[in-house]
């Protein structure tokens, strides 16, 4: 123990602490402060009884109130689900067209579809649904299998060329590399290119017209505008899934590539698929 | 005049140097005596006006038609609207409220630099409610002496009865105070009914409970301690005073040396001032201080000591104003007069003519002193903000439009080769009436617009129905044929027009096109 020191001016004992010649007086704590301090101790003890606090060997005390943050989350999620239940029921009961006709339902389904799209679809179609070579842009007005709300719904629900679904959309373009001569393929590529652009060789394009009529028109149509029944793309527009140059077209004629899209109704449930269809339909190309 | 007319009161200032205590000492009880006089009357008036405004405002009605509440002043938190008579403020217009607060701040500077801590003394809620609580206390327990007696008396049924009654009435006032507050946030008649039928929201009861507790504790139990220990305002306001600001001042240049036996002392040839040391100023002080100790932190300048002293001066036939509103400049010049520039102790005879009247050389406050560079600057800034706010209020738009270009994708190529851009368009109808506006494109020749949710419309314009007092969000697609494209992003604007009122709003936008390489 150090010697007790009494401050001469105030007559109060000092704590012995000194800063730059200033000594701290050992005044008692204000009564209200001391009371508050004791209250906090009592509160803390009560808190550890009411809430999970004391560590045990393999777990901790659970607290009298039974609080857990996991439980809070569960409740919050259940509350959110309950709040959405009315919309979810209505969406389950109605067709996609009916949902779109209802302002409030459409708004809800679009938002829900956008969320589901960002989890399940952007890996192929892109975060803005803008697509990439081989994966269709869903914003535009060019649809392989139809752009009506019901057609989009059908595509999402059952997929395209998806082995796991009996109702999946199926079509396959023959590999014309084994059927046509090299010149014929060059000619038909020049012809198809000439429908929307300027062909490198006008004579080849003219010759290709006959090749097209003999081999391609059955699916793509006489006017090359495609056929949605069989997923045959429109060749007379500005949108190309596998590239628009003559070489791109020729390669697709020789050895066609075929995209595969999974069926989603089994994975996501019918409600989410409807919401996705409403969202995709709202992107600007919906018919 | 007989000096016996003036009773000397037993009163000791709570903060006098000889009884100065550490901060944690128990509070010294204060029993303010009832004052009467012009300042007291003014304070009654201020109390009536401020309490009247506070309690009655939520009950005023203001017809805004069927689509908006009819309460004159309403802070509608749920819908994020603030209604003030004909004015409706949206959250983005909160700068009006901020501007009003800045004006209130500068107004306080202005008031403080001219008449000192007038806010503290007259209009601060703490002062007004303490005054109200004191009215109750006096009505039940009597004036100062009766209250001191009651306080020191042993507990009896009569004492218990008085105390219980007093605290019950205080609590009732406190409940009414807390209750009035919540009426600003909801329709008052509806909420009143809900409050009594226990159907109001829990937050309403919690708010009432908290404000009841604070009103009762601050107004009834803590009183002057709130001002002295808790409030930062006195410190800030004190910094805004200068030597030309009016403050409640004890004019010791005419009061000292004080004497309880003035006539006897004067007869004995001693110098005597006007102060008869009756302690009336201490007894009436709600802060329990002695203004004769000079300017002090605790003084809220309520001027009740002026009333008390003036009535004593009337009794002994001296001029009023021994305690008065005075500026430091005037006080010092008078002090110099009384002490011959500090060369000797105060001689009150120096400020008087041989006939005993106050000398012409005594400085008095003149209205001219209100107009100083400092006060004019405060007033100028205050008025400029006020004019700015008024201009903003009368020129503000009630129809607004904002446009957000889609970021991903920025543009879409359509099958015919044309380019389409998507926009999120928000239309704000900021009046409580439904209306129809025309949305159109300006400066984008050949463009075709498609508005989601509106089936039939012209290629370059669309009629949009707006709900009253609501925001409407539209998804708008704009397509431009290939031959109409420029070589870089094209500027245009969305315009909306209310054909009824011919209000318009516009928002500039860009039309993004594929890069040409």
UniProtKB/TrEMBL annotation, chain A:
Main localization (coarse): membrane
Keywords (A to Z) from UniProt: Cell inner membrane, Cell membrane, Electron transport, Heme, Hydrogen ion transport, Ion transport, Iron, Membrane, Metal-binding, Oxidoreductase, Repeat, Respiratory chain, Transmembrane, Transmembrane helix, Transport
Membrane-crossing segments per the record: 32-54
GO cellular component labels: plasma membrane
Cofactor note (record): Binds 2 heme C groups per subunit.
Cofactor: heme c
Residues noted as binding heme c 2 in the record, renumbered to the chain: 173, 216, 219-220
Any one GO molecular function term: iron ion binding
Family matches, as Pfam families: Cytochrome_CBB3, FixP_N
Ranges of residues in domain Cytochrome c: 108-196, 203-284
GO BP terms: oxidative phosphorylation; proton transmembrane transport
Residues noted as binding heme c 1 in the record, renumbered to the chain: 121, 124-125, 261
UniProt-listed PROSITE patterns: CYTC (PS51007)
Location within or outside the cell: Cell inner membrane
Pathway participation: Energy metabolism; oxidative phosphorylation
Record-linked InterPro entries: CcoP_N (IPR032858), CcoP_N_sf (IPR038414), Cyt_c-like_dom (IPR009056), Cyt_c-like_dom_sf (IPR036909), Cyt_C_IC (IPR008168), Cyt_c_oxidase_cbb3_su3 (IPR004678), Cytochrome_c_Oxidase_Subunit (IPR050597)
Family (UniProt): Belongs to the CcoP / FixP family.
Assembly description: Component of the cbb3-type cytochrome c oxidase at least composed of FixN, FixO, FixQ and FixP.
Record's function text: C-type cytochrome. Part of the cbb3-type cytochrome c oxidase complex. FixP subunit is required for transferring electrons from donor cytochrome c via its heme groups to FixO subunit. From there, electrons are shuttled to the catalytic binuclear center of FixN subunit where oxygen reduction takes place. The complex also functions as a proton pump.
Name of the protein in its database record: Cbb3-type cytochrome c oxidase subunit
Naturally occurring in which organism (per UniProt): Pseudaminobacter soli (ex Li et al. 2025)
Gene: ccoP
UniProtKB/TrEMBL annotation, chain B:
UniProt GO MF annotations: 4 iron, 4 sulfur cluster binding; metal ion binding
Domain 4Fe-4S ferredoxin-type per the UniProt entry, residue ranges: 265-294
Membrane spanning residue stretches: 42-60, 94-111, 168-186, 198-218, 376-394
Coiled coil region boundaries: none
InterPro entries: 4Fe4S_Fe-S-bd, 4Fe4S_Fe_S_CS, Cyt_c_oxidase_cbb3_FixG, Electron_Trans/Redox, FixG_C, Helical_ferredxn, Ig-like_fold
Protein origin, superkingdom: Bacteria
Keyword Transport carried by entry: yes
Keyword entries, A-Z: 4Fe-4S, Electron transport, Iron, Iron-sulfur, Membrane, Metal-binding, Transmembrane, Transmembrane helix, Transport
Pfam family, any one: FixG_C
Any single Gene Ontology cellular-component annotation: plasma membrane
Name of the molecule in the record: Cytochrome c oxidase accessory protein CcoG
Gene: ccoG
């Amino acid at each position: 123990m150090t010697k007790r020191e009494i401050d001469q001016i105030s007559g109060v004992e000092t704590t012995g602490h000194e800063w730059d010649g200033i000594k701290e007086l050992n005044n008692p704590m204000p009564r209200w402060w001391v009371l508050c301090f004791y209250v906090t101790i009592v509160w803390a003890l009560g808190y550890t009884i009411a809430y999970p606090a004391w560590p045990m060997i393999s777990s901790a005390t659970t607290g009298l109130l039974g609080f857990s943050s996991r439980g809070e989350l569960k409740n919050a999620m259940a509350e959110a689900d309950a709040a959405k239940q009315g919309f979810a029921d209505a969406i389950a009961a109605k067709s996609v067209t009916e949902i779109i006709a209802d302002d409030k339902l459409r708004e809800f389904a679009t938002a829900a579809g956008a969320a589901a799209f960002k989890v399940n679809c952007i890996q192929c179609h892109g975060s803005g649904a803008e697509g990439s070579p081989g994966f269709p842009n869903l914003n535009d007005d060019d649809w392989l299998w139809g752009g009506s709300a019901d057609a989009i719904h059908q595509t999402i629900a059952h997929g395209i060329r998806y082995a796991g679904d009996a109702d999946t959309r199926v079509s396959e373009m023959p590999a014309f590399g084994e059927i046509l001569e090299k010149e014929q393929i060059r000619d038909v590529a020049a012809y198809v290119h000439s429908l929307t652009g300027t062909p490198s060789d006008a004579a080849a394009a003219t010759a290709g017209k006959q090749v097209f009529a003999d081999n391609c028109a059955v699916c793509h149509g006489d006017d090359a505008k495609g056929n949605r029944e069989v997923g045959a793309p429109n060749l007379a527009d500005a949108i190309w899934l596998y590239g628009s140059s003559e070489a791109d077209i020729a390669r697709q004629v020789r050895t066609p590539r075929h995209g595969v899209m999974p069926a989603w109704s089994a994975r996501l449930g019918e409600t989410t698929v409807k919401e996705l269809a409403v969202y995709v339909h709202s992107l600007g190309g919906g018919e | 005049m007989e000096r016996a007319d003036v009773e000397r009161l037993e009163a000791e200032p709570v903060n006098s140097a000889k009884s100065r205590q550490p901060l944690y000492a128990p509070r010294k009880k204060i029993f303010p005596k009832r004052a009467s006089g012009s300042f007291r009357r003014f304070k009654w008036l201020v109390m009536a006006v401020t309490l009247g405004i506070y309690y009655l405002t939520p009950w005023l009605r203001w017809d805004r038609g069927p689509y908006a509440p009819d309460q004159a002043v309403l802070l509608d938190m749920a819908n994020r609207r603030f209604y003030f008579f004909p004015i409706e403020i949206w959250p983005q217009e909160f700068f009006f409220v901020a501007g009003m607060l800045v004006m209130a701040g500068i107004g306080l500077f202005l008031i403080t630099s001219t008449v000192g801590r007038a806010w503290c003394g007259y209009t601060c809620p703490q002062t007004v409610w303490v005054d109200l609580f004191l009215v109750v206390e006096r009505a039940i327990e009597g004036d100062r002496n009766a209250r001191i007696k009651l306080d020191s008396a042993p507990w009896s049924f009569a004492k218990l009865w008085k105390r219980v009654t007093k605290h019950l009435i205080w609590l009732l006032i406190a409940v009414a105070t807390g209750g009035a507050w919540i009426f600003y946030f909801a329709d008052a008649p509806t909420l009143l009914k809900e409050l009594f039928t226990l159907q109001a929201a829990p937050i309403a009861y919690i708010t009432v409970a908290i404000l009841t507790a604070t009103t009762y504790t601050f107004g009834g139990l803590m009183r002057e301690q709130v001002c002295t220990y808790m409030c930062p305002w006195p410190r800030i306001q004190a910094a805004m005073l200068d030597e030309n600001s009016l403050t409640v001042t004890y004019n010791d240049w005419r009061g000292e040396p004080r004497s309880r036996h003035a006539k006897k002392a004067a007869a004995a040839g001693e110098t005597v001032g006007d102060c008869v040391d009756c302690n009336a100023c201490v007894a009436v002080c709600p802060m329990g201080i002695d203004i004769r100790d000079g300017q002090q932190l605790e003084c809220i300048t309520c001027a009740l000591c002026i009333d008390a002293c003036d009535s004593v001066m009337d009794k002994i036939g001296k001029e009023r104003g021994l305690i008065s509103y005075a500026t430091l400049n005037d006080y010092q010049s008078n002090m110099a007069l009384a002490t011959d520039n500090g060369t000797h102790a105060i001689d009150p005879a120096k400020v008087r003519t041989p006939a005993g009247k106050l000398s012409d050389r005594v400085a008095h406050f003149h209205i001219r002193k209100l107009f100083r560079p400092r006060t004019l600057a405060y007033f100028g800034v205050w008025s400029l903000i006020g004019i700015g706010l008024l201009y903003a209020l009368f020129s503000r738009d009630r129809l607004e439009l904002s446009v957000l270009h889609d970021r991903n994708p920025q543009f879409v190529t359509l099958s015919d080769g044309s380019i389409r851009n998507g926009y999120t368009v928000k239309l704000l109808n900021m009046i409580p009436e439904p209306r129809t506006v025309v949305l159109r494109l300006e400066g984008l020749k050949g463009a075709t617009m498609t508005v989601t949710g509106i089936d039939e419309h012209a290629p370059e314009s669309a009629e949009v129905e707006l709900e009253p007092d609501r925001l409407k969000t539209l998804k708008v697609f704009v397509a431009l044929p290939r031959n109409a494209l420029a070589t870089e992003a094209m500027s245009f604007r969305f315009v909306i027009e209310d054909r009824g009122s011919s209000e318009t709003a516009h928002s500039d936008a860009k039309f993004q096109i594929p890069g040409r390489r």
